[in-house]
Amino acid sequence: MSCRRLSPLVVSLRQASASRPRLTRRVIPWLAGSLLTSLTLANSTQAADLLAITRDALDTNAEIASIRSQLEAAEAFTDVERGALLPQVDLSGSASHNRTYSSQGGDFTSQTVTLQDPDDDFEVASIDLNATQALFSPTSAARLEQAREQYDQQALQLEVTRQQLLFNVSQAYFEILRAYEVLEARRAQEKAIARQYEQSRERFDVGLIAITDVYEAQATYDLARAQRIAAESNLQVRFEALERLTGRRYESIETLKEDLPIEPPSPSRRSEWMDIALENSPQLMLAGAGVEVARSEVDISRSRRLPTVQAFARYNYADSNQNIQEGHDSASQLGVQASLPLYTGGTTTAQIHQSTYLLESSQYDFEDQRRDTLQNVRSLYTEVINDVQTVAARKQAIVSNRSALEATRSGYQVGTRNIVDVLNAEQNLFSAIADYAEARYDYVLARLNLQRQAGVLEVDDIAALNQWLTEAELVYLSVSDVEDMEPVESIGEPPAPPEEALPAGSTDSLLNNGTLGNDGPLGNQGLNDAGDINTELPDL
Hints:
By secondary structure, the chain is an alpha+beta fold. Helices cover about 60% and strands about 15% of the residues. It folds into 2 domains: about 10 and about 45-80 and about 145-295 and about 355-535, Outer membrane efflux proteins (OEP); about 85-135 and about 310-340, Outer membrane efflux proteins (OEP), CATH 2.20.200. A 4-stranded antiparallel sheet has the order 1-2-4-5, with no helix packed on it. Strands 3-6 form a two-stranded antiparallel sheet. The chain is elongated and about 135 Å long. This is TolC family outer membrane protein.
């Protein structure tokens, strides 16, 4: 059999297996503790952070609990296979009451027989004690080695699932924050466009713009409102996804600080990350464990051609009160027996061929996993590097789109731009805000995924990221309507035309008396009040 270096994880699990309590001893307290904790958290209104939710998931996630039980079963199966190499002792006994009848002379022509009186009664009791000990049993030894390999495989599966859960919880958490920031952008966009729509109706009422401009504003507002509703729904769906991982409902969670450092990964070289993955990736080690399990199956198949040798000891004690054999007898045997399969109809040869092909298949699977791991690490490393630059570019795009919006508004005031240009500029700005949020969370998740693929994602990494969360602003499961949102009357209905057309020169008159001038309600100040969103944007 081949030897291989065990991973530190597998070694530690093997060392701890002897002292680990069985699942049956702790399943009831575990379930009771989980239920009590769930009830406690259900009544708590304190906002949850990423680290607390991660610990909840490690304690209550159903998939993790299932694999832990499978690991316990694999450990028990190792004990089962080990038992075949240990002494086997069995005791059997019997007791019987016997009555004999003997025939005497009779008239065969009349078919009559005279029987002896049934006074020949006796009892017999016996005890048999048998013991065997395997001296050479290659098949049993190979099965024990395979059971150990399967335990190692299950331990690695637990580690794969654990790191995947760490990433999944983080992904679900930041998807909530992503959905929240998109929702905030949609709310601000809806508010700004609603004010722009109201302004266009007022300008139409005084005959300054055509009805088509009002329709354009109304259509844009309806779209913004639909996008806001979809964003609210998406936020609730993201909360549900988080609950799926932990089995617990969170009413609010903390948000990510604006000053989160966006830095390249450390170590900074891609080749170093590839070396880390080859050394630590649990997915790769799991594929390697599959090769070892398949190799042990080949050893089992080949061992069926070898002889088996075992020592045996037998002891028999019998007691009887029969007249002729009254008394007791005892006998004992001690010896060695061996057996060698000579011909099994080709079954053993076929099993060897089958297991050899399965071993070859597992080796190809290992190579495929190795290539997949390296490709994922390379791709994620590149993604993190690109995300660092993307975040900076998205941040600058907000500044550029804000400037573009201000310029478009100024052009709209002097008549060089129309309402469609203003609405498009507003949408571009809010899209830039949403894109910036997307880029930040893409960076965070790509960074965590890179660590997971390399096999180095730990709770400590989650705790370090958790320090960049803040309670200053919380995300709540229940969403409310847009704050300070003024209802727009007659949404979906075309505005009524003005009762009287403005006479020639009336526009100049309105500008001169201030109604549409710089200080009028629809002048520069009015436009700023209706459409200026600088106060609603983060200070970037």
